[in-house]
Amino acid sequence: MVIKHKITYSVLTQGNNKKYPKDIVLKISEKNGMYIIHRALIKQLNNKRQGTANTKNRSDVRGGGKKPWKQKGTGRARVGSIRSPLWKGGGVIFGPKHKKYDIKINKKEQQLALKTLFFNKFQQTCVIDEIGQNINTPKTKLIIEIIKNLNIDINKKNKILLVVVNKNSNLYLSLRNLANIELIEVDQLNIFALLKSDKIIITVNALDKINEIYNA
């Protein structure tokens, strides 16, 4: 069952630490939410698989057309080809072959999974007016200070997802050394990134775009 939910976030202004409310409306799955999220996650992880592992069986290996010796009379074990899987340089029995692992789910189902998970992460989400716009040179210390001002623990065990509309090169370079912080554009938001994050920091412009995309 799909229902509409209104969520009110408190947007933190960086300059004076004041807060103001921001509403978005999301259609979410009330009963089958975890099932749909699970389907979307399996689809994403499967579609990342290349499926390029490949081995040659006895018919693929070059050579081996001639029988090494006659069938009877030599006292040796009978053999039909030097490319038998029993021989060195022979084919591989039941080895991996090229395979597609792609799974398809409907576009609306994928969007419903994202919206439902985003709604479920409401308590772990922090909305700010902007981040990185005033950074003229890459500076990791400055970004750490901004995140600490949001009362977010920045230790390595805490996975933080930072969602912006467009990646700023200075912001990207400032965050590159922080292994536990992932910077992502709102268009690239996905199930796996949301699930593994302990805290989500999102700019107000990115939140507006989510509202626009998923309620179009």
UniProtKB/TrEMBL annotation:
Q: What is its main location?
A: plastid
Concerning Pfam families, the annotation shows: Ribosomal_L4
Keyword terms:
Chloroplast, Plastid, Ribonucleoprotein, Ribosomal protein, RNA-binding, rRNA-binding
Localization, UniProt: Plastid, Chloroplast
Reading the lineage from the top rank, the first entry is: Eukaryota
Q: Which InterPro entries match?
A: Ribosomal_uL4, Ribosomal_uL4-like, Ribosomal_uL4_dom_sf
Q: Could you tell me where the Polar residues compositional bias lies?
A: 47-56
List GO terms (cellular component aspect).
chloroplast; ribonucleoprotein complex; ribosome
Q: Where is the composition biased (Basic residues)?
A: 64-75
Q: Please give the residue ranges the record annotates as the region Disordered.
A: 47-75
Q: Which residues form the signal peptide?
A: none
Q: Name one GO molecular function term.
A: rRNA binding
Per the record, the GO terms for biological process are: translation
What interactions and quaternary structure are annotated? Part of the 50S ribosomal subunit.
Main role?
A: Probably binds the 23S rRNA.
Give the similarity note: Belongs to the universal ribosomal protein uL4 family.
Its recorded name reads Large ribosomal subunit protein uL4c
Natural source organism: Sarcopeltis skottsbergii (Red alga)
